[in-house]
Amino acid sequence: MENVLIEKFTLSDLNLIKNTLETDFDDFWNYNILEKELQNDSSIYLCCKVNSEIVGFAGISIVLDTAELNNIVIKKDKRGNGYSSFLLDGLIKIAESRGCKNFNLEVASNNIVAINLYKKFGFKQVGMRPKYYNEVDALLYTL
Ligand SMILES: CC(C)(COP(=O)(O)OP(=O)(O)OC[C@H]1O[C@@H](n2cnc3c(N)ncnc32)[C@H](O)[C@@H]1OP(=O)(O)O)[C@@H](O)C(=O)NCCC(=O)NCCS
Question: CATH fold of 4-100, please?
Answer without folding.
Answer: Aminopeptidase (3.40.630)
